[in-house]
Specification:
Mean pLDDT: 90
Largest sheet: 4 strands, parallel
Shape: globular
Strand order of the largest sheet: 4-5-6-7
Number of helices: 24
Oligomer: single chain
Structural class: mainly alpha
Amino acid sequence: MTTVSTVDELDRATAPLRDDIRFLGTVLGDTIREHEDPAVFDLIERVRVESFRVRRSEVERSAVADILRDVDITVALPVIRAFNHCLLLANLAEDLQRDRRRAAHAAAGAPPQESSLAATWRALDAARLDGETVARLLADALVSPVLTAHPTETRRRTVFETQARITALMRERQHHEEGDPRRGEIERRLRVQVLTLWRTALIRLQRLRVTDEIQVGLRYYDAALFEVIPLLNQQVRTELRSRWPGHDVVAHPILRPGSWIGGDRDGNPNVTAEVVRTATDAAAELAFAHYLRDLLALEKTLALSARLVPVSAQVSALAEREAGGDIGQRADEPYRRALRTIRARLSATAVGILGRMPNNGAAESMSGLSGPSAELSDRALAAAQSYSGPAELLADLDAVDDSLRASGDALLADDRLAALRRAVETFGFHLQSLDLRQNSEIHEQVVAELAAWAGVHSDYAALPEAERVELLSAELRTRRPLLGPDAELSPLAAAELAILRAARRARDTLGPEAVPNSVISMCTSVSDMLEAALLLKEAGIEPGAVAVVPLFETIEDLHHAAPILLAAMAVPVYRDMVARQDMRQEVMLGYSDSNKDGGYLAANWALY
């Protein structure tokens, strides 16, 4: 009886998912039938039916293969597209089902699911830890989702946007009963989107360039990350500080994103100094654009009058610094004027770093801004003092926040202003940390060339490990660079140093978090780690300022990882570099190459 009940409950729980898949499949089928040759639609249906029979073990897989054998390419392509679209729509339906199940789980008052944040709070409550311990353990906590380069990702932005519209419409649809005219209109709009999807080529005709990959990665910020990451950071901070008040738990955002796109040159000669600059500048431009849009919206809405609301001295001072002409109707609107000052300073900062105003799509926002003119005059920009870093911007925003709260307007402070403050705290001016990565063999070749040119050693590559470590340690200790201004280098060495100098520029203009790590692929020795540090030094980055991160990939390298790290820590100059990172040494373990090298079981044991 229990089994029957469980089956019935499962059936009821999954009914909405089946309904969504059935509906979307019907819409897709109708679209194909109306726009493709009848023979194509019939073939798709035959393959679909036979595939279900294969799943039920009624026929062998060869039954489907026999149907598709010798099919002409003009027929095969729409068949392939049909099943690709079918899977895509089924994935959307599954996402909606997960949302429904989470909501049902919470509404039923059931215990939080394992691995959720709610379950984490319960586990912390049960552990009965003291606030000092929690603050200490989380002082350096960092969760960094990293966007990696995928040159095989060829789907177009239009497809992603259409998927998002279909998902939003399906969410609306589930709130209206069958027969409701509003549901009928939603389903009509869904048919429009599915037709758009069917008529749009899913993939590009040309392979992505690295600069294209950079833009593809950045689009996820406007799609979700700008909203989700700062909000998660705030939720974590609120939950922890409510449990341990009086302790500075999570002084910095725990969740901070990173990227390898444009910095990972291991096996990718298309990553150049110009690409590194593009990657860091494009990320910064997106961050500036986001902040400027929010400041415009705040300037439009925070028209509080000084005749009605008391204002802090800090906000009054910011308002008085507004430049660029007659303040006119804004005379009694200190918040609006203060925000305009902040926007001018941030605009001047962006121009100073990027050499131009961010292309933020804000012209549309500006045109709808009533009251103050959204356009900043050249005089206003010239008079504005650039921010030295995101901390100064955050201080000005905090002053606005403090003033609002002091006058009892916390609701206003907790709205868009709070979202902007959280974003600045999380993303800074750099948006995401770009990690550099190169193969250890390339580092060795470049170091050998530099050592030979400088007369330090004519054949570095022939040295045994101990002598390499000694030479590298000595060079890292000296302030003298290996190269002079008249150095003539091979294209490889010149390109490598140019990339590292581009990284130094990003750190100088956007802050140290812009490029925090240098990852060494196929790291097999202490000298591999020191070579990376020496090349960074040659580019003007002090030893230890950028963390050297060894990546142990093969089975043999994984076995030797611990001895290599212990040996590195025994080298004084390297230990000093780690001390600059607050005695933190990041290590990467390669699960992909180790699987290729030794197989799944051996690789996982070596990783363990």
